[in-house]
Every structure is written in structure tokens, then in C-alpha cells.
Fold these 4 entries.
Entry 1:
Amino acid sequence: MKAGAIGPRWALVTAVLLLIAMPVSPGVHAATQSGTCFSDSSTSGLLSGRTIIVDPGHGGSDPGAVNTATDPDLVEKTLNLEISTILKDLLVADGARVCLTRTADETLSNADRYTFANAEGGDALVSIHLNSVSNADVDYTMTMWGKRSKDLALAQAVLTKLVSGLATFPDGEDSPIDSGRVAQFASGVLLKSNMPAIIVEAVFMSNTQEASYLADSTQGRETQIAQAVRDGLVAFFQQQGGSDGGGGKGNGKGGGKP
Ligand SMILES: [Zn+2]
């Protein structure tokens, strides 16, 4: 019976070791298959004819920021996917073809993300993130660009809409956001994608007020973020398209804008 006393423990240890060992071989680079594109051929609108890549930041083994002061913990990868899914629906309703780099909790490398974006021929790429810092009072909105000539106009167009769209919470409370920042960031996702590409650090999920709204998606903060990014994309394409509105570069037929 001595053996019996330690037997279950060894069985447990073996099972744990197997669980640790198994995910290493499959999985890690199955990634470009995870991307999925969405469109609605019965819908036309301001973004008809555009392909937009929406990239939910982090995922799988990379949680991104975690706010452990909330109950339950807020995890960035999960919020990024929620916001990206709402954004996808808004953009599809505007007539766009929208490609999500991931639709589930999956690990993606930067190469997976830009390879997918380039293969799908995106007209713009938006990578969705939430910011975090140790001081729980800090909150502002930010967009980041990689190559000035390719990305900066998109970063500025989206930032303008984030600042105005996030200044109040959905219930009308003043939010801590009263300004925005635009910054350069040498991310492979931005530098190696062939289209205007930005990272959105929408709000600080480490901020106490933001966290309390983000913790309950029915309060609508995620929707506000998605709506602001959508508005920024529309403004960007309107700038790019000039007076015909929908053509953009290289599409002489116009994008189907009424
Ligand atoms: Zn992030």
C-alpha cells in the first residue's frame, strides 16, 4: 500500500507533463489558416469595394495586458477580439469585405498577421489593442504608424475619431480621455504589410474607470471603440478617394458609393 499512496500522485505528474509537452509540436504555426473574411453581397455603402484587415492583438499563449485589479481579471486578448468582432460587423454593414486575422483565442506571430493581410489584398489594416500602465489614473487614446508615407494619414484619421468618440462613456459620464497621441512604432505588422496599417491603443484598460466599463460589454464601451475606428476608416477613405468618394487608388470603377 506504500506504492498505492504515491501512485496517484505519479499519475497526476505524468498527466501534467503530457499536457505541458503536447501543445509544443502542433499548433504554433498553423496560423494563417485562422484568418477569416466576411462580406455581405446584399449590402452596399461607404466602404463598398474595400477590403479591410482587422487584427485582434495578442491571442492564445500571449494574453497581452491583464488588469488583475478587476474581478474577474480583464485580459487584453479577449477584449481585443470582442472589439474586433463588433468592428467587423460595422464595416460589413458599410459594404466592406472584412478579414479578421483571428476569430478565436489563437496564437499568431507578426508574420502570420502581415502575410495574411497581404494575401487578402487589404486596402487598410487596423490592429486592435488596449493600453496598460501601472498608474491606474492614466488614460488617453493612441494610434501608431510604422511607415510615414503609407500609414500616417490613417493613424491621424482614426485618432481624430477616437478622441471625439471616447470622450464620454456610453451612459454620458465624462471619460478620462481628453486627448490623443500618435506615435511611430516599428512593428513588423505595420512595416511589412503592403497597405496603410496602424495599431490602435484605444484606451488604458489599467485605468480604473475604463476597466469597470470594459468588464461588462453590455455597457457599450467596446462598441464605442469599434464605432470610432469605423468612423476613422470612413474618413480616411473619403480623404483618399477625393471627390468621387469610393474610387481610391487603382480602382477606376469607384467603390460603389451612392
Ligand atoms: Zn496589446
Entry 2:
Amino acid sequence: MSEFCPEVWPEDPVPSCQTDCQECGLYRQGSRMIWGEGNPKAPIMIILDNPGAREDRKGNPMVCGTRQTLQQAMHEAGLTKKQLYVTYILKRQPVRAYDKEKTRAICMQHLLEQLAEQNPKLIVCLGNVAVQAFFRNSELDVKGLRGKSHLVGEHTVTAAYHPLAARRRPNLYPLLREDMQFVAARIREIN
Ligand code: SF4
């Protein structure tokens, strides 16, 4: 692995009209709303299931394990920070049990607004939760979709392993890197 140091990416602020969103009830669990991070004008939009921690217990900015592994794989695939924007199916991190299907369906409205506004050239869903929510099909998985482009509405979408899965099962890391290499090649073609 090449020498690489993960870093805190700039957070994309929540639009003022959305900061008090209480639509699905998840706000009661107390986690703050995170709209996204990285370059909002990037050609590639990465979609995770939900945000991880961005601050440690003392409130200092930190890069969680998921983002460390994601940034590492992107770096090894030759992708740059400027090319990437990361967002989530759920804009808040759940901390207790919740109605997954209903909550995802409600919060997805925010993602649809982001897509309409940002219009990325390529979308990458990381992990089965993001895949199933975004494709609206609970039978799909990363394994079946990775390494290819798919059309969802007018959007070009691919899938990749979740960085946390690759962290927990190191044999998956080379596959995540391969997924990011596919993303890098695809965006070069699109451009
Ligand atoms: S999870 Fe999404 S829909 Fe639910 S309260 Fe938070 S921002 Fe609103």
C-alpha cells in the first residue's frame, strides 16, 4: 500500500431550509444532520448508508474508519479529492433501532434534491444498504452490480463494497480498490 494520510474533508453545510428536518422522527435520537462532504461540484457522487462520526468525544474533527478506508482505496485508484463528493441515504446516524425501510424512503427525498441540484456524472453506491435503497430493489446486492454501469432513471450508477466491510474483512479490500479503479476508468471515459 502506498503512503497515504486520510484527512478531514470539508463538510457541505445542510441547506438552511432543511436544518430542522424532523420528517422521519430519527432526529429524536440526537445525532446531528450531515448533508455531505467533499466537493459539491464533483463529477462523482459516493453514496453511503448513513454518516459516521465526524468528531471525537471532545468534539475534535476526526476521520472515522469507514472514511479512512474509503479515502485510501480512492487514492490507490488514482482518484483525487476534487473529483469526489460523499453523501448518504440517511442524513443522520441512527444510534438505536428504527424503522429502516420507512426512514430510508423518507430521507431519500433529500438525496433526490441533491441529485437534481448537483447532477453528478457518476454515482457510486457503497454497500448493500445503499444499493437496495437507491435502486429501490431489496434483492440487489453489490456483488451482482459491481464492475458495471447501470442506469437508474437518467443517472449512471455503479456499486462497490462498503469500506467498513473491507476493514473488517481485509480480503475484501482488494475488491474495494478494484471497484474504485473501475470508477476512475469510467469517469475518464465519461469525461
Ligand atoms: S433522517 Fe432524514 S428525514 Fe429523518 S429527520 Fe433526519 S434528515 Fe429528516
Entry 3:
Amino acid sequence: MKSVAIAFLTSLWLSILSPTFSAPTLEASHPKVGSTWKWYQLKGTKCADGSETGFGLSTYPNAKETVLFFEGGGACWDANTCYKLMTASFVTTGFKKELFESFAVPTLTTNRTITLRNETVANPYRKANYVYIPYCTGDIHAGDSVQNYPGANRTTYHHGFLNGIRITSEIAKRLPDTKRVLVTGESAGGFGAVLQYPHVQKRFPHARIDLLSDSAIETVGFLDSKPQWHPVVPKCKECNGIEFNSYLPGEALATPKSRFGALAWKTDTVLPLFYNVTDASFAPVITSYFQNVTQTKTDNAKTFRADGSSHVVGEHTYAKSSDGMVYVDWLNKFHSDDPSWTSAL
Ligand SMILES: *[C@@H]1O[C@H](CO)[C@@H](O)[C@H](O)[C@H]1NC(C)=O
Ligand SMILES: *[C@@H]1O[C@H](CO)[C@@H](O)[C@H](O)[C@H]1NC(C)=O
Ligand SMILES: *[C@@H]1O[C@H](CO)[C@@H](O)[C@H](O)[C@H]1NC(C)=O
Ligand SMILES: *[C@@H]1O[C@H](CO)[C@@H](O)[C@H](O)[C@H]1NC(C)=O
Ligand SMILES: *[C@@H]1O[C@H](CO)[C@@H](O)[C@H](O)[C@H]1NC(C)=O
């Protein structure tokens, strides 16, 4: 009886506090693209500067599908990279409502196929709820550590892993009707999506969880060289210790009824900078990783390689692979369980 009362009070409380539940769910017309994003500050989250952050949410009437989008923005691991070169975004500023509105919403309402609910393009996720998970921790959403880096006169909170867990738990509570989830992200957020995947599964135990990781590939040993973050990594059977590139195929093997995709440009123009290698020497790493993903025995992991040089495929709705596949068409096959879905090279 007591627990029923508590459950009732909790849902009442949620319905008062949460626009998600108090918003009319019987809207006659669909929400306009970009018009429904709202920011929620969330206790227990933390940016690198120690300040609290939150998440963005854009619900769709009666949606049973939810897209979790992990933002990208570089990485940092010492005083030089965090505060002098500033190779990670929002490490010194924190991330609150003002930044969400001035920085995130405008990018979420342009061509990002996955994050944009645009009915005039063939976006298979146009009727899903969208969650924006900001990136202000410099740690590819992997971290659980507090550092006082020599040469930096402030503390650095690499809290990205914990933020992901905290936000995902909150979303699972707010959107209990979710039957299908897409965990996705670009660049540092593409790493985050892969790293957080098993934890999203735990929070949505009755939903199917797919994964789409955009432009997130390591040179062997990169993650292992960042103990500063105390990275929290997936523990699946075929996930090989601290080798990031083993996680997506490992998760796919462990979850044969979901689909897993990896995206990249043939020549990635950003990742090599972080690994201090040339673009040309990184291209074979992409090829090798994509072969490994495609060869996953359960046949539920495929890749899309856009022909050209750039960074991040998801924003290029009509990017083409060398063999002529258009990205948004590949994405539709991914989403609809089309048996002809295959790696596009
Ligand atoms: C939706 O997509 C169409 C076609 O690509 C484009 O013309 C339009 O500007 C997009 N709408 C928004 C709000 O970005
Ligand atoms: C230390 O912090 C202060 C203000 O927070 C700043 O003005 C100063 O430049 C910093 N010094 C170094 C070495 O980073
Ligand atoms: C990058 O690699 C070059 C040689 O390939 C080396 O000389 C340089 O010190 C490296 N830079 C960093 C920051 O590790
Ligand atoms: C692909 O898999 C092989 C065999 O496990 C491994 O040696 C190689 O490093 C992987 N490629 C990449 C880029 O991770
Ligand atoms: C954005 O959408 C427009 C309209 O469909 C398209 O012409 C343009 O190429 C797209 N931009 C990118 C970067 O995909």
C-alpha cells in the first residue's frame, strides 16, 4: 500500500514538475522542427569546472521511440590540453540553459539528420523523442575522476561517465513508454554512445536499444593512455579490456536483436590530430575497424564510409559512399531492419 502511494505521489510530482507529462499529448499537429527543445538542470551532474549541468529534451506526442544524442567536442587530459590548447569544449565554462539555447539548439535545428525532426527529409527518427546530452567534461563521456593537474590552478572534474548514467536514468523515469532507443553521438559523443550503451540497456530493460556511433575510432592504445579519466568501459564478453575498438562489435555480439552502426569519412580530418598521426596513416585504421565491425558474427553491425574528407557523417544527410549509397537511405535500412542493409564502402 505504502509503495503504491509513493508511486502515485511520484507520478503526481512528475506530472506537476515535468513539462513532459503536463504537455498536451493530443496535439493535432506535429510539433514544429526545433520548437520543442527544453532544458532541464539535473542534480548530480557536473561539468569539468565543477558546476552542475543537465540535458535537453524534445518530446514527440505519444512517441515510443527515444533518441539519446551524446554531444562531441574534442578531449583533454592535462593542464596543457585542457587550459592552454583548450582541445575540449566547455571545460572552463560549464554548460547550462544559456549555452543550450545559444549553442545547441541552433545546431540541432540545422541538417543533423539524427538530431533533427525534419519531416521533409526521410529521417526515420522524425517521430521520436530526442534527448541532448551536453559535453563539458573533456573525457569522451568516459570519465569518473577528479584531477588537480600540475600547472592548472583549478580542479578538473572528468565526470562524463557519471553524467551519462545520471541523465539516462532520469530519461528512463520521464519516458517510461519508450520501447525503442537509439544511442548515438558524434566524435567524442560517438565514443560516449559506445561506452554508455550497456548502461542505457540497464535503464531501459524492456526496450530494444540500437547504437549508431559517428566518427569514433581509436588508434590502438589511445584510451589506455588516458588513466587520468579513470575511464569506465563496457564489460561485455568480447570487449577487450581498454581497447575501445573492440566494444561496438562486442556489444553487437552480445545483443543480436539490436542493430549497430559505425560511420566515418574515408579521410577523417579531426581524429588524427588527437592521435598525432597523419590523415593518410589513419585511413587504414578506419578500414581495419570497419572490417572488424562488418565481420561481427551476429551480422547486426555495419558501417557507412562517406567518400571524401571531413569529420562527422550524420550532419550530411545526402553524403554518399564510394559504392553509391546515400547516408539517409542507409539509415532508413538500419532503422527498418531491412535485410538488404549492409556496409557501404
Ligand atoms: C528540412 O529539410 C528540408 C530539405 O532538406 C530543408 O529545406 C529545410 O530547411 C529543413 N528544415 C529545417 C527547419 O531545417
Ligand atoms: C589562475 O587563475 C586565475 C584566475 O582564475 C588566472 O587569472 C590565472 O591566469 C591562472 N594562472 C594560470 C597559471 O593558469
Ligand atoms: C607527434 O609526433 C611527432 C613525430 O611523428 C613527434 O615529433 C612529436 O613530438 C609528437 N607530438 C606529440 C605532442 O606527441
Ligand atoms: C581489427 O581486429 C584485429 C584482430 O582482432 C586487431 O588486431 C586490429 O587491431 C583491429 N583493428 C582496429 C583498427 O582496431
Ligand atoms: C542540408 O540539406 C539541404 C537540403 O536538403 C541539402 O541541399 C544540403 O546538402 C544539406 N547539407 C548537408 C551538409 O548535408
Entry 4:
Amino acid sequence: MAQEANTGKRYTRLAMSLHWLMALMIMVAFAMGVYMVDLPFDDTRAWFFRHHKNIGLTVGLLLLLRVWWRIRHPAPPLPPETPDWERRAAAVSHRVLYIMMAVMPISGFFTTSFTGYPTYFWWIPIDLGKWGGENELANDIFAFIHVGSAYFLAFLVLMHAAAALRHLIIKRDTVFQRMLPGRAEEKKE
Ligand code: HEM
Ligand code: HEM
């Protein structure tokens, strides 16, 4: 396995693809979540819940691949002039982002499995949520965790995007390009 792949000047293609695909899916899941909870109880609401769950659970599965990949591929080195506090802030915030990407699907799954509503994963005809049974207190606790975590993650993502854009627009260093494909110095995977 290409152990050196992430130690070039940028992330590997797989890491970039997972980063941008999952970022998009998380933002779509977030927007759907906020929208769907106020819908009247009809088919549209059911459609949004079903696809919110599908997208969220897919994020959870992709996260397994991403973490497995990341453990084997260290992040590309930051520019040597990067101050220590920025290195630490990046390491800590990335770790928390990973944790929140796991908390979202897990808390969402438990929220739903205590409602008594079924959870199907895309076209697989197996009800994943059935074993939870109906339990209002457990549902409330997990919904509280799920919703709180969603807004905390949204805050983190805003900070993260602002930090990334600071590199692109203000500092004009190579940090943002590490997550973008197509420049000459990219190493082969
Ligand atoms: C990336 C993953 C996810 C994100 C970002 C996300 C985000 C959200 C948001 C923003 C809300 C609405 C909060 C509100 O304003 O009340 C919500 C609600 C909900 N989500 Fe998720 N979610 C994710 C994954 C999941 C998964 C995997 C499931 C279930 C398998 C799920 C089940 C639910 C349910 C049942 C609600 C309604 C909770 C309630 O009744 O208050 N979510 N989600
Ligand atoms: C839901 C949205 C997002 C999540 C969960 C997320 C998560 C992450 C994580 C965990 C890393 C660290 C990768 C690693 O070393 O393993 C990362 C890196 C990066 N992200 Fe995001 N990201 C999101 C959205 C964005 C957005 C909107 C931008 C740009 C505006 C962005 C720009 C970057 C850049 C440039 C890097 C590489 C910089 C570095 O490694 O220090 N991300 N992202």
C-alpha cells in the first residue's frame, strides 16, 4: 500500500474525494433535517425523513473507509513556518470533526430506532430500526443529542471553512491546495 501517498504536498485523490463528497452530504443532511422537522405528517415528510436517514447512514459508512484510510496515511506536512498554535488547532479541530461525523449517524440512528418508525437503508428491504422498540424517553434523549450535535457540527464546519479560506485568501499559502486536485506537485497514489 502506498504509505507515502498522503505525505506528498497534498492529500491523495481518495482522501480529497471523501472529504468533498462527505462535506456535501453532511450539508445536505443538515439542510434536510432542519426543513423536515417542521413539515406536516404526510408523504413529503416521510420522503425527507427516509432520505435524510439514507444520506446520514451513508456518511457513517464512508467515515469507516475514511478513518481506515487516514490511519494508514498521515496528513501532508504543513508549511514549515506554520506556528505551533495553528498546528495544534488544526489537529484538535480535525479530530473533533471526525468525532462529530461519527456522533451524527449514531445518534440519528438511535433517535429513530426508539420512535417505532422503520429505518430502511436505500433499497435494502430490512428494517434496521425495529429492534429499538418505542420508547419516548430514549427517543427524546437521543433526539436532544442528535440535534445539539448537528448545530455544534455546523458551528465547527463554519470555523473550519473560515480557517481554510484564510489560508486561501489572506495567507495565500499552500494549505488549501492540499485538499484540491490537479496541481503539478501532486504525488501519484
Ligand atoms: C451527517 C449526518 C446527519 C446530520 C448532519 C443530521 C442533521 C440533522 C438535523 C439538522 C436535524 C434537525 C434538527 C432540528 O432542527 O430539530 C435532524 C433531525 C433528525 N435526524 Fe438527522 N442528521 C444526520 C444523520 C441522521 C441519521 C443517520 C438518522 C437516522 C438513521 C437521522 C435521523 C434524524 C431524525 C429521526 C431527526 C428528527 C429528530 C426530531 O424529531 O427532533 N439523522 N438531523
Ligand atoms: C461538513 C463539512 C466538512 C467537514 C466534516 C470537514 C472535515 C475535514 C477534516 C476532518 C479534515 C482533516 C483531514 C485529515 O487530515 O484527515 C479537513 C481538511 C480540510 N478541509 Fe474540510 N471539512 C468540511 C468542509 C470543508 C469546507 C467547506 C472547506 C473549504 C471551504 C474545507 C476545506 C478543507 C481543507 C483546505 C482541508 C485541508 C487543510 C488541512 O489539512 O489543514 N472543508 N476537513
